[in-house]
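Recall the central idea of this unit: under ordinary conditions, the amino acid sequence of a chain determines the structure it adopts. In this exercise we apply that idea directly, starting from the sequence alone.
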Amino acid sequence: MTRLAPLLIAIVLLASACVRPPLQVEDTPTPLLAEDSSLFLPAPTSTPTLEPLRFTLPVLTAEPRSAWRPPLYPVPWALSLHDHFYFIRPIPADQVNWPVADYRYGGTFFGDVVHSGVDIPADMGSPVLAAADGVVIWADWGLFSGAPGNDRDPYGKAIAIRHDFGYQGKPLFTVYAHLSRIETVAGRKVRQGEMIGKVGDTGITTGPHLHFEVRWGENSFFKTLNPELWMAPPYGRGVLVARLADTHDKPLHWITVLLTSLTRRAVYDVRTYGPRVVNSDPYYQENLVLGDLPADVYKVTFEYESQKQQYWVRILPGRVTYFRFQGSKGFFDEVPGYEAGALSP
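Accordingly, the structure predicted from this sequence is:
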C-alpha cells in the first residue's frame, strides 16, 4: 500500500491542476415558484466542447442495489409551477418501491405491447397502498374488459381509485393491477397510505409485481400518463423529462438514451415511448422520463440519423429537469409552448 501512495498523490495533483472550480449540487431543494434557469448548466450545442469540470475523484463502485432508498418528499410536492408529484409510492418504503428499469411507461413487451403504466417488482403478498385519498370505483376482476368477475382479464384482480383532486380541471385516477388479494370494495372512501390489496400475479403477467397507472380525465386504458411524473421522488433525487423529435417535431420512438453520472460514473438507460396507447404530459409533451436519479451532472448520449448526439444536464433534487431535441435544430432547455391539454400523437 505504501508503494502506491506516491502514485495516487501524483494522480490527484495532476487532476487538480487542470480543472475548474467545482459545480455545487444542492443537497436539499430550494422552494421555487417558477423555473430558475440560473440553476442549470448553459445549454450546449449537440457536440459541446466543454472544458474539464472539477470534481472529487470518485470511488469506482457501482450504485448499491439494495431494497432501500431515501424517504420520499412529502406530497403534494412541486418546486416549479408545472411539477405535479401528487402521489406516494403504492408499495411501502421498507421494500423495493421503484419501477423496474427495463419496462417503463411507453416501453414494449415482446416488441408489440406498449406499457401503459409502471411495474414495481414487489414480492408476492406485499401490501399495496392507496397513492392518495379517494373513492374506490373498481375492486374486482375485469377492469380492462369492463366485465366484473372476468377471470381472463389481462389486469387480473385490480383496483381503481378516483381521487379527491384533479389536474387542469379534470379528474385523476390510479390503477393497481395483478393483485393476489383485494382488501377493499367499490364505493369505499380510502386514505393515502391505506392498504387496499396485496401484490400478486393474476392476469397476464410473468411473475409477482404491481402494475400501477395514473389516468387523467377518464378511467380509461387510453387516458394514462407516465406515473413517474406523478410519484414523489426520494430525497436528493430528481426526474429527467425530455422530448426527442425530428427536425419537424415528430416524436422519435424507441430511441435508446444513455445517461452517465459525472461524479459517480453510474450509467442509466431509457427508451423513448412507443407510438401507440401512451400519452405525453399536457405540459411537458415528453416522450422520455427517467425518475429517481441522484442529484448530479449527467452526460446524455443517443444516436439520431446515424450520428451520435451529446448533451449535458444537471439533475436537481426534488424537481424535474427538462430538455428537448429537435433534429437538425439541436437541443433546447426551455419547455415548448404547446397548447395546454393537448396530447402528442
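The chain has a mean pLDDT of 80.
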